[in-house]
Records
---
Amino acid sequence: EGDRVKEIQVKRQDAATNWIWGAFKMPGRILHQLAALWRERDRRDEYIGTLINAYLAAGGEAYGVRAGVSYVDVGTFNGYRTALRLLEEGVASEQRQTAMLVGGAHPHVPVVPGEGA
């Protein structure tokens, strides 16, 4: 199935791969579909990954792009500092960003920071 995403393994110690997803790119209509699905599921999805899994199970499509060499969690103080250091060193600007393309997005279109789509 090439780049097609089968599932996101959320918070699993026994994950089948070492992939880390970092971003989504999707049309607004897909975002609205995800919001509607979240409401239909009584807002029980704590993580977007479980919601995407429900979307995929209902026939939705998502495509992954293998890219990038560094991952940091900028939601933590240490991760944020590491990200700043990587930017200062120029590492982040030289690598492609990791992305998952959901729904109508073309699977081979790279996602560029600040693209706004």
---
Amino acid sequence: WNTKDGRSDHEHQYLYCQAMDSSENTELVKTPREYLAMKNVTPVGPSNVLSMAQLRTLPLGEQVRTLMKNVKVMAFATLMGLLASGTDSTAVLRCIQQVALLVQGTWVMKSDVLYPKNTCSSHSGVPAEVLCRGQDFVMWRFTSERTLMRKEVTAIIKLPPEDVKDFLEQMSVPRLNRGWEFLLATDHDFIRKHPDVAQRQHMLWLGIQSKLEKVFNFSKDDFVAKKDVKQEPMSDSEKPMDTSLTNGSINGYPDFVRSTFRKHYVLCLSEVKRLFNLHLPSLPTGHSVYGHVMDRMLQDTILQSQCKQILVPFPPQSNATADEQKVFGLWESGETFDKVISGSCSLIYVIFSNRLMFTF
């Protein structure tokens, strides 16, 4: 054929393509839709992970159960935010109570849901029934305490350290020199809005507590009594007893407050609490049980230690917490230098008490 003739060359190529096996030419005969489908790469994820779109196709009870199994601890407002808009909160409350228990106003996954029957610990092989009792004990303690010491928990439930660590990691975070602190802040808003649910959960915890006392052979007074001693105000006629240090200072507050304000002069309550937590390791052995900072007692001690509260007029849009808005200053002391400092604090107190405004 004439290679210089364009028509001849075209016919030659056409015949050549016709002669090829059709199975070898499939890429050239696909429709545009099929071609784009080949180019669209579907992301591959873990087989045990559901997208939010997939999750919302499940019944409400399964949605709540799945979310709690993944998060372990959740505030009710957060849970409602993860569910579809317009979901009935009453229905969610019914579902959440089937898979979780209320701890400090937030919801924590039930132990028997977390550790199903006929399963065991991946660390030690301890059966699920025993793990559930240990988990329940940790949860119960967190209903009345912000922080727990791992060593104390292990001594009572007598489970391997790895299992105890698992219990704590699911609902708390480690804090330097303070043990394990509950993961979320107490949700007072939920407790105020749903007093009936809070009361029902309280009754459930009383039943769990009764069972735990028999299993682990302890009395509620071993924990509750100490908590009560911290909260009750002490009159002049009462003796410090177990909560006193060798120098007679209740919980070590007065000496700490006096020395702290002699160094810093003006502090907000949150900063005083932070400094006190740093001060805890220096307290005598055995005193850490009473190391939780009680706001009422600490404020009373500050006001009794030659200090006064300064009424700082924070603007309405301020992001400062309630503790940050409570400002205290040294008022008076015996030494000449301290009188100068306390005099300055007194002036600041008068300025803010009368809401005097200055422009610099």
---
Amino acid sequence: MAKRYKIKRYNKIYRTDRRAIARRVVLWVAGLAVLAFIGYCAYGPVVNFLSGKYSGSKPDLSKSSSAASSSAEKPVEKKDDSYRSVDRSQLATPQQISDTVAGLADAGVTRVLIELKDDSGMLYYRSQNQQASAAGAISDQAVDLDAFIAACKEKDIQVAAVLSALKDPLMAGYDKSSAILYGDGSYIWLDDTAANGGKPWLNPNAGSTRQYLQSLCTELCEKGVSEIVLKDAVYPNGLSQSMMNFGFTSASQTKQSALQDLIQQLQTAVGEKGGILSLVYDNQWLYEDSVNEVNYKALTADRFYLDTALSTVETGTVLGDYTVSSGATQQEVSQKLYDYYQQKIPGVIAFGPQGTSITQQTKGQFYNS
């Protein structure tokens, strides 16, 4: 007979634990409470937003902008340059250097000009240039330029070195390859007869001239000079102008282009050392549009200075609606020269002759006080 199986009934597995039910109820109630709270908090802003009446707090842009601007560093007001020329005799000893620089600082000077190469070709600092040394171009009265620059730096005064560019009979006579030649190039050209003391001049188209001037400019910048001011960057007046030989090799080369090329080469070299190159001319080179086939007003450099020395302006010179009279004062002529040339040379700065006090005027020009 088949064995019977006893069927067990596990009723408890279908029963619900009362404690589990209680936990579920508590969780549901807590969840509903949280949702209700969120809804209560969001109701007002949402309704206002949908109705276009949102009034929640916004960042005050004016205040934040003001705070940002106030916290930012204020730009330092740039002072106009106040120029002064110094004579080398004022720098003969360490004490003189100290006293001179202190006086410049007390006067509010920001840039001092000092002639370091004159129109004889002599250098008035202790140059390491071998060609200058061989030619005997370093003066026994050379100033201690390093000490002078260091003293100026302590007073935030920039040093500008004035160099005679092409009027250099010493180097032109020493190195024939650098000189303007005569005719077929067999002889050095002189600006007068030898009997009358005629002098040779440097040729702006000569590679040796350019190299010599560039080496002086870069040497000075490396010492701390911030500006090179070229004077006598001109072609000479004199006899036999038509017989000058500049070594031009093409019809496109002119006296104008050769001079501008020299200036550009020096400007580039000085700029690479962190300095600027400037030109200075007086009225006799600027008044006419062509002086010995060159328009000096058309030359370009970092800065262009107008020397307003009264001695360079002839009586009767017409400057616009003004005519220079015999009783004209330096101040009057300086102002009229500046007014006249600022229309012809953009950015021109006017100042007086070397060795004299220079005072800033309302229009930014400078003249002798």
---
Amino acid sequence: MSLSPHPNVMLQIAEKDISLIQKYIKIPSYQDLSFLNNGIYSIQSIHCAFFIDCSLSAKRYHHEMLQHIYRIISPPVLTSNHIIHAFYIQPTDNKVPIVYRVYQNVQQFIYELQRIKYYDIPSLPSFTELVKVIVNCISATFYSSQACVHLLIFYEDCISSSDFRTLLPLLEVCGRQGVTFLFTITSYHQSIEYAEFFLNGLVQLQSTISVTSTNDYGITTTKTERINPFIPISFRPPLLTKQDLSLIPIDVLHLYPIDLEETETMEGLIVSIEPKYFLNDQCFEFYSRPLLYRVQPTVLSKNKYPFARGGIRNAYHGINKLTKKKIVLKDFIEPTFASLTKYLHSLELNCAVEELASEFNQINTSFKRIKFIPTYLFVECDQHLIGKPVLSYEELMMVCKKQIYFVEPELNGEFIKFNDNNSWVNSEMYSATAQAFSHWTYFRTAKRLIVVDLQGVVNKEKSEYILTDPAVHHESQSKYFFSSTNLGQNGIAHFFESHQCNSVCKQLNIGKYIPGHDKDSDPIYSESVTTFPKVSK
């Protein structure tokens, strides 16, 4: 398959393999993509569109990107006969099948953009795989300045997908065709070295190069050409680091008018739950809720842009201006999770896990302790309107009209993930105590729930794990319905599929999980709450 010669400008929205991508730049605004309206980057100059995606979690952002393009394009100014070639690429079993679509005019292309849903966009390969389908590096026609851009089967021995250096010769070939690349920048620690090398190579390619071509009569000529610039753009939510900015070429930094040190000050209430609420196992039932919440006025300073992002939350650096202590503020990524009710449910989960860890430590006297950092809610509001130390749920709802954040002390040390919510266990930095704690919580709660996704730092001086952001699989998904990390009975079964009882499990004499036992039965709720033998506090 080949394309006839056109103005050789491609729009490529590419992402590195998702295993290396966790941090991106930001969602493009109207201004970010406004250059597509005119000049060499006009949509009328784009004849090939590549829809690139590497993960389920990224698809929604690519959908947003498509909608941005749709809003920017003004149909009346576009020619009706402008053909766009679109390639949807999806890797399966080490193959790269290509779905090829031809839109006869821009109006048809725009119409398709309107109809695309984020979950319809196929999963696509890394930037390496993208280059594989753009060029056929063994074709001699690339040494002709009039060569077509070939989209043929790529020979695997021409490029190493694990080494970015092998991309540069291919990019140079594309550059000689006058191709302009728009691509993303990664900042994940495992790929930062590749990204730096990659961009250094791109800077070199932007310099003047010599192109040798041979005409039909065998006459060889050499002329000097300058390839078009490479413009990095990312289509992920706001998450920018200093390292990201250092990678962006200076001539395009104007696309990212961001001050990473910018902060904002907020006043409001710190909301917490009375610890005695968790002394009764009724807190694990789906209908339970604290009658009153403790509140304390405070003033916080928060960085405007997050420094990290997990599966469901953003994390921001901050300072409690009253205590002068460093804190971390977190909010839900998904707007659908941003209600006070869901924040309170999540706060209750964290507090319940804190109490379980406290009880575990009383019987676990020979191994490291498990400690979860205390979590509170910050509700932005006029704190002067509140004149009492406790509020009911209804009263909180009345004062909560602005932003809500989780607030935690800042963790110091190497952050380690010991297990996740889908059976994965860190074998390189294995923690017998962490695994035993997850196992123990299942039987401690009469097989109601299990605490997983254990992550945090190790305090060697105090011989304890300091953990944050746990997940809970509950037998009733309605109990913690706010959490997308709750996999219910399936999540419980997945944990025990990979769990092997260790010395801590055996010393604590924790029960054995029976696969399939009660897995398919409906949960039973009764007026009388089941109680369990508790260790005295």
